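User: What would this chain look like folded?
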Amino acid sequence: MVTTHSAPGSPGSIAAPAPAPAPAPVSTGHLPGPDVVNSLLETAHARFAPVTDGAVADYIPALACASPSLFGLCVVDVDGSVYRAGDTGHEFSIQSVAKPFVFALVAQVIGVDEARRQLGVNNSGLAFNSVLAIELNADRTANPMVNAGAIATTSLVPGSDAAARWAFIHEGLSRFAGHSLALDEEVYASESATNLRNRGIAQLLDGYGRMYSDPVEATDLYTRTCSLLITVEDLAVMSATLADGGVNPVTGEQVVDPLVCKRTLAVLATAGLYERSGEWLYDVGLPAKSGVSGAIMTVAPGKGGLATFSPPLDEAGNSVRGRLAAQFLSDALGLNIFASVPVEPSAGRPRVG
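Assistant: Here's the prediction, encoded as structure tokens.
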């Protein structure tokens, strides 16, 4: 049974509130009660909706027309309860947020050790579409959360032909979301006409023996995957599936194994926010993945998933409002995996100092 809780949309024209700290920055074993979660989502939406920093991605023509005012937040816990605020019904293309899910599906098939051997897991510290990330790595692997590694991951998708491989990706991501996802044909056509850099990356990887099927086909499949339509609620469900050991908390389906989830979240922590991944872990303390359409999905292992959508991006390609909201909610909901308080002393362990 799915429980839903909705918060109001954008508060309209208001003055930017003072950036007060979140109320409870200590990690807990579970989410707070429904009223608290819903209230905190409302607070986060009202607090960060007035932020006007960042710019909508314009290097993909179909994304350039997105309204910068769109802003949606959603939390889904591992029990399947859904909490919403803002523009949670607006559809957008998944873009790079698809990367961890495709990696998980491939790792489920070939095994997590083979996935690490063939794809690599270290953060390059470079931009998401960097060619240098390949050249500077001695074994020519690239992290699956950046374009080079994601295209290589796509080349490992099983199937007898392109149609079968696309069916594997589409059906797999749909299982993560809990329903069949549609393809945005306009975005797919727009990206296909402008993805020269990704095609070049695929050819370079192929030259180094790090493409495992036809590079042209793999790049096309990668582009098509990025063009799947989702909502911020879909993304929160997908995130919660990774948080719950691979079980979709809404449908109850085991999409991937717990070990695959654990390894996927580890890779997310290294490079999910590209060259800002270290700053993200420092501030938010959770594995996450961003995309240039303005989405960020954040995973709180054992607790649930948080998704945000707001098109204006910072210089690294991450949603400005999404980053602010995720940091606030991570603290306020007690999600940060690095936060703790000292254990009370026992009879055998006196407090010193």
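Confidence is low (pLDDT under 50) at residues 7-18. If you want, I can go into more detail on any region.
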